[in-house]
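From the pipeline queue, job 12 of 40. The input is one protein chain; the requested action is below.

Action: predict structure.
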Amino acid sequence: MKTTLQSPVKYLQAILLAFFLASAHAAAGNGPGQAAPVQLVGRIVAVVNNDVITQFELDDRMRIVAQQLQKQGTPLPPREVLEKQMLERIITDRVQLQFARETGIRVDDLQLDKTLQRIAQENNMAVEAFRNALEKDGVGFAKFREEIRDEIILGRLREREVENRVTVSDGEVENFLSTRAAQT
């Protein structure tokens, strides 16, 4: 598994493909000699393996974090700092999610629905009321649902990776217990 950003060649390929598709679309809708209006659909800010992160996605994540920090009364860091932190977080999450999916970690819809019900109950709401509250705050329920799925997947990945790396010998357990007994 690659854990680094793809080469500039992949980035260039993505840009050329977007340009080609935009040109073909413009040519199909306009007569000869007419220029098509240029429309920016999303600037690519990073490429993680075969996945892209757009400026729109980064801005959306920054907006949500800024709202959360304001609700908590926490002062916002400078935009450049927040943008860098959010991009690093998105890249890290993407790499981990790709690895989790490659190694078979999945969350089915039933598990996800139960988790969403629990989250709604923790907020003293029914699922439908919770959905309405999210949408009132500008967070689409479908997007929130997929973010929760990703969080569950990341949690399972971290648990599995920690379990695979932590080993405690019988001697270490006995040493700990004898030390605790001596302290009390």
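Job complete. The chain has seven helices and two strands.
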